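Hey, sorry to bother you again with one of my protein questions. There's a protein on my desk that I can't quite get my head around. No rush at all, and the record is pasted right below.
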Amino acid sequence: MTLDVEQASEESTDTLLERITRQLPHLRRSEQRVAAIVLDNPVGAAQYTMAGLAEAAEVSEPTVMRFCSSVGCEGFQDFKIQLAQTLALGLPVTHSTITSSDSSGDVAEKIFDHTISSLDRARRTLAPAAVERAIEAILDASDILFVGFGASGIIAQDAQQKFPLFGVPCQAPEDFHQQFIAATMSGPRSVTVAISNTGHTEQTLTVARAARKAGGTVISLTGRVSPLSEVADIPLIVRTFEDTDVYTPSTSRLAGLVVIDILATGVALRRSPAHSEAIRRMKSELAAMRHAEGDATEADS
């Protein structure tokens, strides 16, 4: 996938506020005044009539209509509908920056806004065809290697914990040398899932290249088109909002965990009925063990 195609795909899934921000430098000066009102207070802008928004921006109503068209809306009513849909997902990170004056309630609300809007962006931009290819590759796999470092390493460890759903031997060694050794021992049906939000982590790239060289299939999980996604046989692009503030938590890790759940569930659903029954039996026995442990604790108290 070229960068141009990738950018076109991203733009087609942008929310209204994302489109306004992207188009801002290209708008007429009068339209920029309308954009400033909307971006400064999206919740308040959603309450305006067209006349009210024109008055607030000190422009004419035809200017408001031109602004709506410039940002991809079919008139003022469509603009209000799209704005309401965007706000229903929570304000994007650019509108939820955490400051030292925020109360605990403000911090909680902004972090939820940031996380919800970022996960929604990942959902809107994740390519279903790539997910399907990844599931098919894992279904045919003899074994799976998950690799990543830092926050990406946490995703790899979580994926390894889901090995009953994947239905084949899985490993997620934390040591780089062990990752490299496992990758070089890949067979034609081995799958390596290489995870890096930036796609530039050199050690992850080295492991991915080793797995490809050994004849295995590489699935990458990155936040953008990158060297790692270009190495991979099946690139999964998981876009979230970039962190713009020192206090803003990373949501790329959360989005990565969700994608691993998607892959694990998609694979488990296509395994044989016997495999599904084995998973149900395992979960039932685990529940019984927890119940027994709880009874024992109560008896001791």
In short: Strands lie at 143-147, 170-171, 190-195, 217-222, 234-237. The longest strand covers residues 190-195. The longest helix spans residues 273-300.
